Amino acid sequence: MEKLRTAVNQIAYTPRSRRWSALSPLQLSLIPLLSLASSLYKLALSFRHQLHHFGLLRKNRLPVPVISVGNLTWGGNGKTPMVEFIALWLANSGISPLILTRGYGGADEARMLQRHLDGTSAKIGVGADRAATAACFIDRYGHINGHSVSCFERLCYEHDRDAGSHLDSDKIGVAILDDGMQHLSLCRELEIVMVNGMMPWGNHQLLPLGPLREPLSALSRADIIVVHHADLVSEQNMKLIEWTIREVAKFLPIYFTRMTPLYFFKVGTSFKLPLESTHNRIVFCVSAIGFADSFVRRIEKMRPLHVDRLDFSDHHLLQTEDIDMIRVILQKLQAKFAAKPVVIVTEKDYDRDPEILGHLEPFEVWVLCSKLQVIARKGCSGDSFMKTMGRILEMKYMTTCKHNLSFTT
C-alpha cells in the first residue's frame, strides 16, 4: 500500500509533458483508472456544492466568528502551523480560541497543538463533526457575545495587547477550523487558503489523478491566500504562483510564510540541542508528513556532512518492521562513514508515537522544532497580516450579526 501511495503521489506531481520520461510503465498503466476516478470525483464535488448552494444540505453557524484555514491540495501546505500561529495571536490578545480539528491520522497534529499551546487559553476540540464538537465546548466554557462586545476591531493593532484584558479569557471568542476549506457544513467569517510554494498545484488535476481537492477556481472563495515555504522558492516560480492566483482572485491579499527552525530535542529526554549540532554529522531524515522535501531542505541548510532520507505517506504510523528497516539503513550509513548517524524527525512524527522512536537505540533520535513566520515581501509583513485578519473578521462578523438580527426581527 505504501508503494502504491508513493507511485500515485509521483503521478500527481508530474506534469503531463513529462509523464512518458518520468513515470514507470506501472504508473503509466494507472493513469486511465485514476483519470476515470478523477472525473467521478469532479461530478461528486460539483453535486455537493450545488446541494449546499440551494440549501439542501444544512449549514451550521456558531455563536462566535469562525476562521477557516484550508488548502486546495493534499498535505504540506502549512495548515496546522498557521492554525497554531493564529491561536497564539488570539490568546495573547485576550481572546480564547477554540481549534476544531478532525484528528485525522491518529490525531498527531492535535497532540502537537496541545503540547505547543499548553498554558494558553486555547482549547482543542477533536472530532469529524466540527459543529457538534464546538457546541460541547461552548456549552462548557461559554462564549463572548458578539452582538454586544466588538472585541475584534483591536486585532487590527498588534501593539494593543492589553485591550482584551477585561474579557473573560476562559470564554470562547473565536473558532479556528483546521483543514476547513472543504468543510462546507460550517459557516465561516474568514477563509485563509494555504498554498505550498514548493509544489503549488502539481499536474493541475483533481484527486486522485492529481493533488487538487478542488479546481483552482475555488481560490475565489478565499479572503486571504498564504504561500508557504516561500523562502525555498525561486523568484521566477514565486512570480508564476502569484500570476496563477491573480488569474482567479485578482485583488485578494497574498502573504508569504516559512517554517523557521528553532532547536532540536532528544527523544526520551527534555535535552535541547542548538541547530548547529548537525554540523559535520551524518543525518538520516525520517518523516511521514505531507511534503517531506521542505523538511529535508531545511536540514540540508544546517550543513551536515551527509543527509539521507526515508519518506512515508502522510500520517503513517511506524510499525516494528519500519523500525527494523530504519535500523538496517543506519547500520549501513555507520559502516560507510565510520561514524554513528543521527535520526531526525519532525514534531508531527514525534507526536504520532513518541515511544516507538525509542526502539532505535543506540542511535539517537532528534526532533526538529520549528515555528511559522510571516516573511516580509512586497510591503506585506506579520503586522499587516494580523491587521488584515482583524479587519476582515470584524467586518464580516458584524455584517453577519446585523443580517441575523434583521432576519430575526
Word description of this protein:
The chain is 40% helix and 19% strand. It is α/β, with parallel strands linked by helices and 409 residues long. The protein folds into 3 domains: 2-53; 66-253 and 380-408, Rossmann fold (3-Layer(aba) Sandwich), CATH 3.40.50.300; 260-371. Strands 1, 2, 3, 4, 5, 6, 7, 8, 9, 10, 11 and 12 form a 12-stranded mixed beta sheet that branches. It is globular, with a radius of gyration of 22 Å.
Write the layout of secondary structure elements.
Blueprint (H helix, E strand, L loop, with lengths): L1 H11 L6 H4 L2 H29 L12 E6 L7 H14 L3 E6 L2 H14 L5 E4 L3 H12 L30 E7 L11 E7 L27 E5 L6 H14 L5 E13 L5 E2 L8 E6 L4 H9 L5 E6 L8 H18 L4 E5 H6 L1 H4 L7 E10 L7 H27 L1
Parallel strand pairs: 1-4, 1-5, 2-3, 2-4, 5-6, 6-7, 9-10, 9-11, 11-12
Antiparallel strand pairs: 7-8, 7-12
Helix pairs in contact: 4-5
Give the CA-based shape.
globular
| Proportion of strand residues | 15-25%
Mean pLDDT: 91
Number of domains: 3
The CATH class of the largest domain turns out to be Alpha Beta
Organism: Escallonia herrerae
EC number: 2.7.1.130
Pathway: Glycolipid biosynthesis; lipid IV(A) biosynthesis; lipid IV(A) from (3R)-3-hydroxytetradecanoyl-[acyl-carrier-protein] and UDP-N-acetyl-alpha-D-glucosamine: step 6/6
Protein name: tetraacyldisaccharide 4'-kinase
